[in-house]
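Lecture notes, unit on protein representations.

Consider one protein chain, 279 amino acids long.
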Amino acid sequence: MSEYLRTALDLAASQIPVMPLRAGKVPFGNCRRCADNACGGRPNMKNAGPCACPGPCHAWAAATTDPDVINSVPWRRAWMRASAVAYHPGGAWLTVVDLDNADAITWARENLPATQTVPTTRGEHWIYLGPMQSANAVRPGVDIKSTMAYARWLGFGTGTMTALPDAVRTLAVNKAAAVRPAHLAVTVPAPAGGGECRHRSPAYLDRGIAMAEQRITEASSAVHATVYRTFLAVLSVHGRCGCLTDAHMARLFTAAQAKGETPRHCTDAWTNALTRLGL
């Protein structure tokens, strides 16, 4: 049994969802059955997802506490090639404040309550009890890793874990408020035969966008797939008639980012939907 597999099983026994990392501290790539969302998209946070994939696919969402999965043949193969063990903090009801340099550590000591601390290669992980939405670059050298994210397992560290403070939650809220949806110029063909677009009724279009926002906001699993399918539905109705504006796109992108999608993921999903529809 490899050292990584043994560590993973020990953590899983403590109800900490684990997954292997390959060289470069990145997850293993999806298998063929999961490539291009063929299995139905990224799984939810509580289980291995609708695809029932036998391998460690879907990055953070593959993390599990099931010893039979962790010790299965496909996972054993991954552990033999692994370079580290990772865990899903949100799945363990934890939040990791990743401090990447000395300045970030100094800032944390001056502004955050003390908690369990784990040394990293360049800085420290401060671990708090309680989950929240993950966010990168909330300030220079500071990332927040909790739900829909993974962190490298580096040991238990020192100190006593304390409850997640509002000061950390506020960092993510402020970051989200500062993010603007990625601008994407959309060029679509004019309606066949020309003439006035039948969707130019503000009520019809606004109702459609509001329903799309609600669908994304209420997604409890497979968020990435839900965002893509929602974009596809909106474009299938409004993409060929010129109704959609940057303001409509911004509303959809904002809803998706509030569920944890990055601007890049939003742009990719929008572009893939355009391609699927031949736009």
